[in-house]
Amino acid sequence: MTPTATVHRVAPKGRGTHRSIASAVRAARDGDEIRIAPGEYAEQLLLDRAVSLLPEDGPEHAVRVLAASPGRPVLEVTASGVRIEGIALTGQDPGQPAVLVGAGGLELDACAISGGRVEAGGDASLTLTDCRVRGTELAAVHINTTGSARLTRVLVEDVEGTGVVIGSRAAVEATELTVRRVTGSGVRVRGGARAVLRDCRISGPGRSGLLVEDEAAVAALDCRVEETAAEGVRVLGSSPRPEDRESRESTDGGVLLVRCEVLRTGTDGVAVSGTGDVLLLNCRLRDGSGPGVSADGDSRTELVDCQVDRAHGSGLVARGTARLTVEGTSVTGSRANGLLAGDRSEVRMATSDMTECSFSAVHACEDSRVTLTSCRIGSTAEHGIRATDRAGLTVEGGRITDCGLSGVQIDSAAEARMRGLSVVRGRAGITTESTGTVVLEECDVADTERAGISCGTGTTPVLRDCRITGTGTAGLVIGERAAPSVEGCTVRDAAGSGLVVGPQAEPRVRSVTVARTGKNSLFVGEKARGTFEDCVFAGAGSDGAAFPALHVAAGGAPVLRGCLVRDTEEDVALEKGARPVFDDCLSRDVRNPSLPTGADQSLAAASGTGTAGSGTTARETEAPPEDTIEDLLAELDGLAGLDRVKQDVSSLVKLMRMVRRREEMGLAPPPLSRHLVFTGNPGTGKTTVARLYGRILAAVGLLERGHLVEADRSALVGEYVGHTGPKTTRLFQQARGGVLFIDEAYSLTQYAGSNDFGQEAIATLLKLMEDHRDDVVVIVAGYLKEMEVFVRSNPGLASRFNRTLLFEDYGSAELVSIVEHQAAQHQYELGPATRESLTARFDTMPRERGFGNGRTARQLFQAMTERQAYRVAELPDASESDVMTLRPEDIPQTL
Length: 895
Known about the structure:
Distance between the termini: 84 Å
Oligomer: single chain
Helix content: 10-25%
Shape: elongated
Radius of gyration: 37 Å
Largest sheet: 45 strands, parallel
């Protein structure tokens, strides 16, 4: 109260007091106080001057003001600077305003409002602090102004309608707002309003927890949506996107939720449609009666570091042409799919988890496009991932475990490209029955009840460098009339046959190893054909049963070139009418061989009607990579160049063996760091050696799996405060049991400024390396000088990365050998003078920083084949030698 202000008192009796509040208001001037004695007052108050209404004494809400007539507010404000404290205000019509602010400004502090809503319109401003609004209809608080409003520690409850409605172009901040037991939406924002909600809780609305319409956008931070019955957040209409996460706590650009809870709402947890644009950060959506998050229309929705738990529908749904982006988010316990994508929607999901779904964890259908990067899927009742209709699926890395059906199911005309995916346990591994393009690269399938990878009837998938281990039936199944391309794959420890080729199938199989199978290494069905080149079949019938390594059914006519059969009772069995062709194939350590073992021999058909093929020269094929130390070191030694690296790795293997031996004896291991620094130019084999290093450590017994997870700065560093730590942790968890390979690691320290989180990624990584020192090996790689600076930039790095392997540039002779290897793989030959010309060509190339090494050699080989094709096309009668031979004139002088 100002020094010149007057205090006006109101009491039912007593000298010098007003008998009504309205009388005191009429007598007051701007700035005066009106103090009211305890009791009930039936009034209709019009506050057209800046006065304060306060209780004289007694407990809070001992002063109760009741509306004098139905349909009229208890209190109407038209002046600025009006303040009311500790008073109960009760209307007579729950569907009408009990408090109406048509102009000016009102502050309500510690007041209880019932029997009608609080409403602000025009250009009025409104502040509610420590207030309770209850027992209303239509809405409890309706802010429809062009001014501002602030709600702090306000409780809204028992409303037959919406809790809080914000409209027009109001700017509203709500802190610790609680909305519960409302039949409509908890909070509704529409028009051009802007709202910031911090530490709020919306519990049990009959419809949406938060409904955003018209030109609103939503950025929800640190929120929880639990036990929903309608949408937790619903967005309709055209919505401008919040421009910058760094400034997300301003009111510019729509609706912002910070550390809020939305509990027990009506259907979807979050529903976005039209052209809505929603960002949810650190939010929790729980126990919804429908989907957790639903994106439809042409909307854009982004979830970062959120939790979607126990949705009664699918956890995430995308339809229409919606774009849904999900990062660092977990979806758990959905009673339908974890992610359902349909229509022409686009979904990008990275470093996220989906577990315990009642249907498939990921279901992509119709014309949707789904990209999954480094995601984990586990314990689903159906498929881990299913793509059907004309959907497009891209998977980079990630792990799928314990699926009731297939880890991945691709059917209809869906297209899929998967690289580095791991599928463990479950009924089946990867099943592709689609007529669309399917490419699997560097995928691992292990410990499935049935087949590891199945190629359905008439399909043509491409499999490269995949590994299948420990399957309950066959390892790789090629269905009837299927014609897949399979290269560089490994099948081990299948309880049934390793590679099964169905009737009339015609696969192209190259450089595949099948080892330790319960039945046949290769079973070729009736009338099946196909080619098998440079393959190894070892250890057929490993469970003690007498199964031949190769079984060809009646009418089967496969062609095997340069294949090796070893470590089995019998190499080949043919049914009557089988007509296989064996070219340059070999048996080794086979008790009853039919194939050549090193001398001229012929293979008699099982029917005794003649020879099925012959091999007159023995070409040794590398033994199956059973991940023994000897095999792995031989594989390392077979790489071009890298003499110094090979020596360093061999020395490390000796040290690791000693570490393992001491551990087996119960002795403490020596203080040896397994983490490494790889330095050198691109194309020198750093990633290849890192992958081998992990397998070596697994073979020694110092790592559980030995797999490789590749990362760079973008995979570790987040975009806002609180994002980097979880992001780095998830990547580290993915690498547990294997090797985390960080390329250009110095980029984590090369950026400066308050918005760079590279140092946070390093700190998180060092902490994880300490906490899980025996679970993960970290290899950092890059140019020599930059890596030296990087390691010295942090004492923790220097102590953990104290061993550096230098990958020197390849010499000309080594680069020529790489070209020769490429030529042999693609059935080309180098002419007599071509090697010398290649050497001279490589000698002229400057070995500057960034020289491509092996990459340059492969590019040169590709250019040679293109030039040779142009040259041979002009020959009138090109012979087979012309087509296969690369000559000096095919070598380009520029790349």
